[in-house]
Write a structure and sequence with these properties.
By secondary structure, the protein is mostly helical. 67% of the residues lie in helices and 0% in strands. The N and C termini lie far apart (66 Å).
């Protein structure tokens, strides 16, 4: 009939692998939604459902870097479920996934994608039982061209420090990054930096003073009065 809407294509007959590789973003979303349910239903961290993605973490990287912004957000959500339910075995995928999140998600125009990317990075801290390697993955984000991506990277560092403290996240490399953060031309980046310093100060106190000594006098004054 003229003017009738085109029926939605049903991708459920295709395998997960076929849907993940499909050119149609809706097919990929279908795969992501199925995988979330599959991961949530697994009885243990050693379930065979996780094995393909632990063996080939590039499959997870493709999810979080999906070329369609709607599918990308769903892809990040899928990997959150993977890490949550695969537990410590999921830590093996961190070195592939976290740099992709820093590169492609922290500067997203979709707030949901950015928030879920930060949530996913924090999930990796949980399963790694430490944050040092993750901080090393996040720090290159301070060199991003987009200020919002830089601000996203600083926000992740702030959340890691705030939630886990200096035992889980040794602050030395974060201290070294502070001058670069406060030299950034973007106000949002510097504002996130101020919150990062407050989180650090709440744990280490005056031990932070040498790390901020290189900042502009007006910035030091603002931080010490905060």
């Amino acid at each position: 009939m003229d003017g009738a809407p085109t029926p939605e294509e049903d991708f459920s007959a295709l395998s997960i692998a076929e849907r993940l590789a499909h050119k149609n973003w809706k097919a990929r979303v279908s795969a992501y939604e199925t995988l979330v349910k599959t991961f949530q239903a697994t009885p243990s961290e050693t379930d065979p459902a996780f094995k393909p993605y632990i063996s080939s973490p590039d499959l997870l990287k493709k999810m979080v870097t999906d070329s369609n912004v709607v599918a990308q957000e769903k892809g990040v959500e899928t990997v959150i479920a993977f890490v949550k339910f695969a537990g410590e075995t999921a830590a093996r995928t961190r070195e592939v996934v976290v740099p992709a999140l820093v590169d492609k998600c922290l500067g997203s125009t979709r707030q949901g994608t950015k928030a879920k990317a930060i949530e996913l990075i924090l999930e990796y801290v949980e399963v790694e039982n430490g944050a040092a390697a993750i901080v090393d993955d996040v720090l290159p984000g301070l060199n991003a061209k987009q200020p919002k991506a830089v601000a996203g990277a600083v926000s992740v560092l702030k959340d890691i420090i705030r939630l886990y403290g200096p035992v889980v996240c040794p602050p030395k490399s974060v201290f070294k990054a502070l001058p670069k953060i406060f030299a950034h031309s973007d106000q949002t980046v510097r504002a996130e930096g101020s919150q990062l310093v407050q989180s650090l100060y709440s744990y280490v106190g005056d031990a932070i003073q040498p790390a901020i000594a290189e900042l502009k006098p007006v910035q030091i004054k603002e931080l010490t009065e905060a």
